[in-house]
């Protein structure tokens, strides 16, 4: 399967897209990163999983639409950055895993959130999981998969894009309140 | 509510970079001067990043499950890391010897397995045949027709030659597919691989077929990760899905 086809599968949200990407370069990457980062097989897998998911996210965010290099070069480049970052921050000793690398990747994209509290990202994630449908699907479609309100209204059978947009605001408001309540509880318990 | 929505709409457009330069300046000035708006902006950004993170964590679980299932694979042995314990040197030496012996046995056993799988699954693609039109004698066959005629009669080298000439005149996905199959019959797997891979780059037609034969080529070449990935891609196809899933299972 070619790079273009793999990216197309992911972009079209084909359930196999992520697995196909994961399988495509797994052996080569694990072999390479073990030598590059002097790590064991388990750590190598954590790097690979994070790197694959960063590529996957970039495809959805549209930042790979004009990819100049091969997918492999891009993927290995991300792996290299993750390994360097671990080395610089000396987090290897903590046996940081893919979840940690992903958390780092997300928070680093928003320098505005300098006062981002520990576990705040996890807190939002927990609340999002409790949100239930259709809010979860709607917010995921809009903020992760970057679907327009027109696409969302047709996919979730809303009357029109404005209705979907209103629903989105309500869902965000619900999520915001849930996070606020939990943050208060969390702070009181400390 | 309306004001709140307006602010959020501005914030979203700011994050999407869809504000005009003038609008952007206005919002940035407001963000500097209005603490309430600034905290609303930060809060909103937190929620969006949290949603993205939630999606990624869900997918991470999918990859962990996939990885877990690999531990039971034929290749599982190579995945497990050795935990060092006191007095480890003799054990490590023994393990190294064991690994070396196992690897040799593994390679010797593996080759016939992939050969067997290839032999069981490889059926050459049916060419459309030379299909002579009325009044057309054998001496007036096009390169494509000559290629199909040679291919159908097992003269694969001749078929490849004719297919090459035909492709110089007019590119055709079926011709590519038959050419790749000819290489497979001639056991020139590297050339077959190139034909199928370039076919997938150049054509939108016969993509599933090309992927199927490419996967078989990878099996024969023992490029098993690539074979699996390619088979995954067509495992839901209506024409080759059953075959692809069967082969995937056998590879595991």
Account of the protein in words:
The complex is a heterodimer of chains A (190) and B (252). Chain A has helices spanning 3-11, 17-37, 41-61, 71-89, 98-108, 120-130, 135-144, 149-155, 161-189. With 190 residues, chain A is mainly alpha-helical. In chain A, helix 1 packs across helix 2 (17-37), helix 2 packs across helix 4 (71-89) and helix 3 (41-61) runs parallel beside helix 5 (98-108). The termini of chain A are far apart. The model of chain A has no long low-confidence stretch (mean pLDDT 84). Chain B has 252 residues and is an all-alpha fold. In chain B, 75% of the residues lie in helices and 0% in strands. Chain B contains twelve helices and no strands. In chain B, helix 5 packs across helix 10 (207-220). The longest helix of chain B has 36 residues, at 35-70. Chain B starts with a helix and ends with a helix. The model of chain B is unreliable at 74-86 (pLDDT under 50). At the A-B interface, helix 1, helix 2, helix 3, helix 5 and helix 6 of A face helix 3, helix 9, helix 10 and helix 11 of B.
Short summary of the structure?
The complex is a heterodimer of chains A (190) and B (252). With 190 residues, chain A is mostly helical.
Q: Layout of SSEs?
A:
The complex is a heterodimer of chains A (190) and B (252).
Chain A: H1 3-11, H2 17-37, H3 41-61, H4 71-89, H5 98-108, H6 120-130, H7 135-144, H8 149-155, H9 161-189
Chain B: H1 2-15, H2 21-33, H3 35-70, H4 76-79, H5 88-121, H6 143-152, H7 156-169, H8 173-185, H9 189-202, H10 207-220, H11 224-234, H12 241-251
Helix pairs in contact in B: 2-3, 5-10, 6-7, 7-8, 8-9, 8-10, 9-10, 10-11, 11-12
